[in-house]
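The methods section describes the discrete structure representation at length, but only in general terms. An entry of this sort, consisting of the sequence and the corresponding backbone structure tokens, reads as follows:
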Amino acid sequence: MKKIITSLSFLCCFATFIRAQNISNGLILHLNFSGNFADSSANAFLATVGSGVSLTSDRMGSNNSAAAFDGSANSYISFADNSVLRPANISVSMLIKPSTNTRQYNALMAKRSFAASANEMYNFTLESQSKLVANVKRNSNCVTGTGWETVSSQVNTIPSQAWTHVAFTYDSTTIRIYKNGVLISSATASSPGAIDNCSGAELLVGSAWGTIWNTANFVGLIDDIRVYDRVISNQEVAILSSIATGDQKILTNTSMRLFPNPINSSEKKITISFDEIIDNASVKLVNSLGQNVSNDYELMQNDIKLNVKASIPSGVYYIQGTVNGSAFSHKLLVN
């Protein structure tokens, strides 16, 4: 099972200390758009992709690594109904870049029948004035349009033409909405309890009302979609935000220290230290566009020494690599 690493400020040398955190527990759907529309969770659900959806570059400039939705009638991804996609509690996380914030509705995800908007369970949308809204169904007897428990953010929350990490959770009592890893709104359900188990509806990405109201289909880019059958914590939401935005993609179950960070342009060596003996490793430094800056490094028993050219411009860079078969990536600031 993969482990995700969180970062804490190290007490000296501007280092970053990494500790293991399990972020795969309860993951029932994961679309990372790595050259395809496959569900990379253990369930491997089969996606049906509408003609209005295509692969495009993600926020790091990697080709075919995000999904573009043109807002047309066929601009959606759907998954057939499955009991796994009908959790009692839920967490949804994704990275979005809406093309516009002037539409009344800009649907992100919904569990409801595409053709008739029936068998509703939950949805996540952008609404007028860039407001983020999450809904779950309670005590509805699966009757269309009834039993919604809702939480919404303030207006002008989500900018257009910019990447934002968004998430919502429901724990049978409270619905919570997050922006860029921070809790921004919550509401207590008037009728606490599990989400209504309404079978028969697809899980839709980029649409919520299907053929009934396809003008609400999402227009823009979406990346790194995750659905959990449990409530992820505030800390886990912050981790997912870092993963989605590229600030941190540590996939290793060992501790790691990176120092110095940030570095000055005069620094020529960065130390990446691990709490286990390194049997095999590779590492490189890339810029914010994913372009290679340096792959000159030395392996020590527990350390990797990455050599950096003193002439590189200031900005945000990423150290990426593998150690003993586990991948890691971490943001590096150059002053």
